[in-house]
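Dear colleagues,

As part of the handover before I leave the project, I'm documenting each prediction I ran so the next person doesn't have to rerun anything. This entry is a single chain, and its sequence is reproduced below.
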Amino acid sequence: MTTGKYRHTFVGIAALLCCAAAPTTLHANSRVEAAPNLRVTVMAAKVDPDRNGMYEDLTGTIDAYAVLSTLPATETHTTTTRRNVSTASWEDEPFTFRPQAAGSYLRVAVWDHDHVGEDDFVADTHISLDYVKEKGLTDITVPLSGKDKESRGTVSVKITNQL
């Protein structure tokens, strides 16, 4: 247990690490910086052929867009639609997410835009942001799963810190 003048300093540091939104000066020689934002880009989403006729157009392609969100749900970003594709890329559409609490995930969901009726869910994946940070990963390729939990393809994302 910490006693004396240092006890309050350690409690203050722990509180700032949990909740800091901007650089905060503790005293003349100590500084705690806010966590950097995450810059996330969907480099490629490759969708396997539709075995059940649920989401492909007659041409065997989809009008793909991706929805990126953090879980617990705090932020959501949606890409533009790429028409008539089986592999879509949004390299030109990076999104910035605020720092996330421990235990957070990035959900990447791929949808098929329909001009008539509702859009079709194709597949999604969840990426542990703690794991990404712990391993120092930036380029990640993970499987996409449909509602039935069967493989529907892969998605590649680039996650970097943005100060």
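Residues 68 and 77 are 5 Å apart (CA to CA). The chain has two domains: 1-34, 37-162.

All the best with the project,
I.
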